[in-house]
């Protein structure tokens, strides 16, 4: 049986077991969650998180060394960042329009008097940008600070290129390190079905169904916007810019979407996502290793959609009409907020506080959507990772006219 099929079966099984236990026996659920679902999920998450830092370092260093030309890196960087920014803006606009048309906050009653939420301090954008340069790369790796690891790996890769023959042995080490990590990803993924089962059973079993019913329309609007963005924006981008068949893209990438769905973390999904992009989507290593780690850190279209819908929803619940200027502010701040959102579960909601504050909406409104955000996080994380892969495919295809890209000593080339 194929791995993707096994993961789907585990996911469905986890959902069914979670729902049954939630409805029939919450006591049994909490015991099983402590001793079975929780541990299975944590083992899987730890196994893949274990690989994230070394994979980003080895493969990005190798990738940059493989490009061999800083100009090429600049061009790929510019394309990647433009794609990230434009698609994120489109994502928020889709979310805003749907929320304004369907008006989820005006139907039903929401108790705002009990709403309490203290906003955690979101890092400022200028701090984030200045912090890209690590003062201590070892610390950056120990803390898993993705942007800093990316910056360091790019410099090491450039250095290896510039030193040429002198750094040959080092290049070999990086290359073999990379092969080793890819091997480990495949090994660890053998545990994915069990991990998925544990994660989904735990997540679904702990939901309060009353909360879901009460927030049904809001959830439908978010999910609809996520769906439209994936199919229309990414589908069209793949067809028009990469001139590839979108259906094949989605089919090849579906295994990664499932992992993103069950882990709710772009970072944790990264090793699998890069592996599938390189093997199935035929993205050359240098492009995959540059675009995907960067995307997992700054490109969060699914999160941006949630932030757009949530802002309009909260405005509606509090009886506040957003002006056109305020809506434009939402687009701008949500793009920034999604850049600042780390690829781990639930951070999108913390960054939402920043968007609400900019347009003068009560941050306590977040309390209304807190209860059901765990479920939406699963779906938006799948969209977040898909956006990164779509970008990698588009950069691959548009780079073809500039000649061949290949990793040094590697067979993967375009
Ligand atoms: N969980 C999301 C991710 O990792 C981020 C978020 O929206 O909370 O991509």
TrEMBL record:
SUPFAM superfamilies: Proton glutamate symport protein
A single GO molecular function term of this UniProt record: symporter activity
GO biological process: dicarboxylic acid transport
Compartments (UniProt record): Cell membrane
Residue stretches spanning the membrane: 7-23, 43-68, 80-102, 146-163, 183-205, 217-241, 327-344, 350-372
Pfam families: SDF
Domain of life, per lineage: Bacteria
Primary localization class, coarse: membrane
Keyword Flavoprotein: no
InterPro entries in alphabetical order: Na-dicarboxylate_symporter, Na:dicarbo_symporter_sf
Record's bilayer topology term: Multi-pass membrane protein
Keyword Repeat set for record: no
UniProtKB keywords: Cell membrane, Membrane, Symport, Transmembrane, Transmembrane helix, Transport
Gene Ontology CC terms: plasma membrane
PANTHER family: PROTON/GLUTAMATE-ASPARTATE SYMPORTER, PROTON_GLUTAMATE-ASPARTATE SYMPORTER
Name of protein: Proton/sodium-glutamate symport protein
Species in which this protein is naturally found: Bacillus licheniformis (strain ATCC 14580 / DSM 13 / JCM 2505 / CCUG 7422 / NBRC 12200 / NCIMB 9375 / NCTC 10341 / NRRL NRS-1264 / Gibson 46)
């Amino acid at each position: 049986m194929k791995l993707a099929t096994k993961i789907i079966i585990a996911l469905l099984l986890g959902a069914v077991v979670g729902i049954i236990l939630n409805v029939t026996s919450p006591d049994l659920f909490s015991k099983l969650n402590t001793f079975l679902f929780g541990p299975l999920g944590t083992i899987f998450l730890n196994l893949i998180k274990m690989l994230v830092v070394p994979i980003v370092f080895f493969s990005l260093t190798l990738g940059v060394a493989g490009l061999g030309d800083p100009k090429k890196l600049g061009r790929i960087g510019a394309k990647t960042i433009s794609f990230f920014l434009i698609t994120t803006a489109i994502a928020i606009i889709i979310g805003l329009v749907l929320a304004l048309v369907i008006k989820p906050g005006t139907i039903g009653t929401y108790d705002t008097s009990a709403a309490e939420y203290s906003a955690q301090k979101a890092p400022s954008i200028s701090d984030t940008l200045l912090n890209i340069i690590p003062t201590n790369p070892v610390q950056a790796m120990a803390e898993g600070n993705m942007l800093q690891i990316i910056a360091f790996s790019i410099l090491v890769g450039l250095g290896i290129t510039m030193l040429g023959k002198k750094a040959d042995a080092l290049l070999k080490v990086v290359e073999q390190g990379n092969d080793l990590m890819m091997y480990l990803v495949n090994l660890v993924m053998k545990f994915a079905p069990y991990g998925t089962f544990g994660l989904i059973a735990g997540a679904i079993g702990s939901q309060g169904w009353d909360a879901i019913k009460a927030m049904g329309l809001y959830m439908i609007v978010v999910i609809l916007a996520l769906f439209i963005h994936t199919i229309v924006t990414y589908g069209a981008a793949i067809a028009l810019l990469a001139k590839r068949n979108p259906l094949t893209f989605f089919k090849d990438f579906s295994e990664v979407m499932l992992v993103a769905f069950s882990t709710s973390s772009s970072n944790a999904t990264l090793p699998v996502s890069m592996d599938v992009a390189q093997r199935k989507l035929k993205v050359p290593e240098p492009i995959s290793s540059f675009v995907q780690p960067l995307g997992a850190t700054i490109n969060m279209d699914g999160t941006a959609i949630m932030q757009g819908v949530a802002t309009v929803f909260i405005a509606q619940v509090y009886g506040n009409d957003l002006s056109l200027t305020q809506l434009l502010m939402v687009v701008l701040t949500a793009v920034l907020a999604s850049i600042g959102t780390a690829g781990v579960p639930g951070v999108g909601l913390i960054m939402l506080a920043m968007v609400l504050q900019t347009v003068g909406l009560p941050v306590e409104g977040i309390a209304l959507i807190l209860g059901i955000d765990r479920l939406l996080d699963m779906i938006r994380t799948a969209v977040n990772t898909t956006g990164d892969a779509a970008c990698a495919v588009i950069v691959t295809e548009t780079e073809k006219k500039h000649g061949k890209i290949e990793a040094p000593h590697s067979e993967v080339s375009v």
